[in-house]
Write a structure and sequence with these properties.
Layout: E1 11-14, H1 23-31, E2 36-40, H2 44-47, H3 50-65, E3 70-74, H4 84-100, E4 102-108, H5 119-139, E5 142-146, H6 162-172, E6 177-182, H7 183-192, H8 197-201, E7 208-213, H9 248-256, E8 262-264, H10 273-284, H11 289-294, H12 299-303
Parallel strand pairs: 1-2, 1-8, 2-3, 3-4, 4-5, 5-6, 6-7, 7-8
Helix pairs in contact: 3-4, 4-5
Length: 306
């Protein structure tokens, strides 16, 4: 890769929940220079109904077919494996991903507060995920387990510790199991534990198959972390890179040196895909102005810099 864009086509953008990933929206994402898109899964009720799930996935596939985008699917955020109903829905999400062409399924793992009462749920989840990983291996989809963070100040789930998610990935011992390292979530937890973001993410990079990239104001201990127009208590803000307090000079170097896709996960209201692409590349490590200008020309222009 010569001078220009050190991210290449690894950068992606999420389609927010409740948004339909139609042809026009996906074309706008691709034109902005993104190489990946994160699709929101339909509700658990749809994923659990084979006929409805296939119909929905094929409509998404038709929209994707008009682009060169690669895709990941985000499973419903409240889905927790370990019961027959939840396992059926997560199996449905894997099948949905295979049907629409998504390569990975992001899953919120270990969504329980640690303690004696949580152990049975964690064990049931692990057993279910081990079975589901065999399904994922067979159909060629990877299950990416995501580290979480408190949305508001309060108890942390087990998966707030990236090392706990890494341990689960290693326990599953499957080529279909990886980690979705959410840099924004790790920044919140680093602040709550009064440590550095680098110390939170460096030990888990060996199992990462996908990054979620967004910004926030950390644990919001300081008066400077209160800003007009932003919920005064919310921690998990999903801001664009540069709008929060993450040191993207150092974090950007870390993610650039990894091979996994980088999915911007920015909540609405938000800037246009073109503006998000430009700003993210600037924050995460574009070398020169030519590369910033190239994203306006889409993937072909970005490729010309490689």
């Amino acid at each position: 890769m010569r001078n220009g864009d050190r991210l290449g086509n690894r950068l992606g953008l999420n389609v927010p929940y409740e948004w339909w990933p139609g042809s026009d929206l996906l074309a706008e994402v691709e034109t902005a220079g993104f190489g990946w898109v994160q699709l929101p899964a339909p509700p658990i009720t749809v994923l659990s109904d084979t006929r409805s799930s296939i119909r929905h996935a094929r409509a998404v596939a038709a929209a994707l077919d008009g682009t060169g985008l690669r895709a990941v699917l985000h499973a419903p955020g409240d889905l927790s494996a370990g019961t027959p109903t939840a396992d059926r829905a997560l199996a449905g999400a894997l099948s949905y991903a295979a049907e629409c062409g998504a390569e990975q399924v992001v899953y919120h793992a270990q969504m329980v507060v640690d303690g004696r009462s949580a152990q049975d749920r964690l064990l049931a989840e692990t057993r279910s995920l081990a079975i589901l990983c065999r399904t994922a291996e067979r159909i060629g989809v990877r299950l990416a387990l995501e580290n979480l963070a408190p949305v508001y100040p309060g108890p942390e789930t087990v998966s707030a510790n990236p090392l706990a998610v890494r341990a689960l990935v290693r326990r599953l011992d499957s080529p279909a199991a990886g980690m979705c390292l959410d840099v924004g979530h790790a920044n919140i937890v680093a602040g709550l534990r009064r440590t550095s973001l680098h110390r939170m993410i460096a030990p888990v990079l060996d199992v990462v198959s996908l990054f979620h990239v967004h910004d926030n104001l950390g644990a919001r201990w300081r008066a400077a972390d209160q800003r007009p127009g932003i919920d005064p208590l919310r921690l998990d803000l999903h801001l664009a890179p540069g709008d929060g307090t993450i040191d993207w000079v150092r974090a950007g170097r870390t993610v650039r040196e990894h091979a996994a896709p980088l999915l911007l996960e920015i909540h609405p209201p938000r800037s246009s895909p073109a503006e998000l692409s430009r700003r993210a590349r600037a924050e995460l490590g574009v070398l020169d102005d030519d590369a910033l200008d190239a994203v306006a020309g889409g993937p072909a222009a970005v490729d010309s810099l490689l």
